[in-house]
Amino acid sequence: MRRGMAIDYNGDICVVLETQHRTPGNLRAFVQASLRSVRTGKSMDVRFSSAEKVEVIPLNTVKMEFSYKDGEDYVFTNPETYDTVNLTPDVVGDAKNYLMENQGATITFVGEKPIIVEIPASVILKVTDAPEGVKGDSANNVMKTVTVETGITVQAPLFIKNGERIKVDTRTGKYMERA
User: Fold this and answer.
1) 3-state DSSP call for residue 159?
2) pLDDT in tens, 32-59
3) Is 99 exposed, middle or buried (0-12, 13-18, 19+ CB in 10 A)?
């Protein structure tokens, strides 16, 4: 069992979020897994014994591009077939903070239902609001809060100004470098 797999658990399709193999001193080994139900979206912690069998459900990953936001939904288009998929904010998750038009993303489907949206590890965003740094604040590696075009705020060095493009790590939300 690995992170990202889909399994059948009690008649429900679940995605494995995290696993940990444990071997307590005088007991048999087991796998502690954190699962999220595809149907309800709820997470649960489950313990599987080493002899237990789990049914793995095949996943289908498709490279798509973010097209536009339609109300609350995010619309992705397959660049080869031009099929569109509307995803809710809870499926998109934290990736919504970094989505730009025509940006590539990998969407994982179980059957016809999208479950995971993955974006590149870093994106280049334009700074829309950067307050001026206070003179004399440059003692050692001082950061300021800047707003980027997607609306999120990022801690960036004092020398970053409005209109500049910066590289942001999508996993941590931190400034990496100028672009």
Assistant:
1) coil
2) 999 888 777 788 999 988 788 888 888 8
3) buried
Residues in the chain: 179
Q: Which two tokens stand for residue 151?
A: 């609306």
Which CATH number applies to 122-178: 3.40.605.10, 3.90.105.20, 2.40.50.140, 3.30.1300.10?
2.40.50.140
Tokens of 140: 């050692």
Contacts of 111 (CB under 8 A, 6+ apart): none
Please tell me what DSSP assigns to residue 151: S
Would you say domain 6-57 falls under CATH 2.30.30.30?
yes
Q: Where does 60-118 sit in CATH, by number?
A: 2.40.50.140
How many Cα atoms are found within 13 Å in the side-chain-facing hemisphere of 150?
22
SS3 call for 94? helix
Task: Tell me the three state secondary structure of residue 8.
Answer: strand
CATH topology agreement for domains 6-57 and 60-118: no
Per-residue pLDDT tens over the stretch 107-123: 888 878 887 888 888 88
Say which residue the tokens 């997470």 belong to: 43
Q: How far is it, in rounded angstroms, from Cα 86 to Cα 74?
A: 6
